[in-house]
Amino acid sequence: MKSTNKRVIPGFGVNFSLTIIMLSLVVLMPLCSIIIYTSHISFSEFVKIVTDARVMASYGVTLETALIAALVNGVMGLIVAWVLVRYDFPFKSFVNSVIELPFALPTAVAGISLAYLTSRHGIVGQFAGLFGIKIAYTRLGMIVALIFVGFPFVVRTLQPVLEKIDHAYEEAAEMLGADEGYTFRHVLLPEIFPALVSGVTMSFARGIGEYGAVVFIAGNQPFKTEITAILVMSKLQSFDYASATAIALVMLAMSFLILFLNAFIQSKESVKATI
Known about the structure:
Layout: H1 12-38, H2 43-50, H3 53-86, H4 92-98, H5 101-104, H6 107-118, H7 123-129, H8 139-164, H9 167-175, H10 180-209, H11 212-218, H12 228-237, H13 241-274
Helix pairs in contact: 1-13, 3-8, 3-10, 6-8, 6-11, 8-10, 8-11, 9-10, 10-13, 12-13
């Protein structure tokens, strides 16, 4: 039989050109504009701006809170994805749809809601206060906000992978005498590890650049709860565009490095899977 080799969507040249145009307009040009604007200042000025004590402190707060939130999302996202894939329960479809709420909800609305709930007047804040724990206007509150915005990335990345895992692997491990912990570590974890790393990485990258959900709950105290995105906004509000773009360039480099590491890990795991 003659192979026709037809594509569902024909016209590679047109579609590829549209892909390049969209990437250029939506992603590359805005990012390049940051680099071009930053090139207007000298290298010594750039180094002085991005290594200022207050800016360095904001890097630390940003990375610390985003990393903790991403790790929490990794654990809790795995549990939630597992429950949604492996069990049937009432209102499962509703619970499944609620997972995507942070994608649709404006982050500023989320920040205001979380700030009120975790303040000393909110339900969560009052309960935590009984144990001497303060959430709002602390780094703990910032981590809560970043968990909220990053949580769907892990769940939605893991769900399709868990759905494709054949139950026969787990049954075979059980028949051979493996306990649940051994089966998870040596049968399930290798299968879901690339997706788990991808979800955690995207949650981490989102946390580094998040502004709306954090600004209301952070308190924005320099050297304590001031993240880099808030510092960039404050520079823009004071018309210090050079400092804002220089710091934004550092954030861009951080995000690129994280996504590059994710792509490198995914590539290594793909090579292992084909061996």
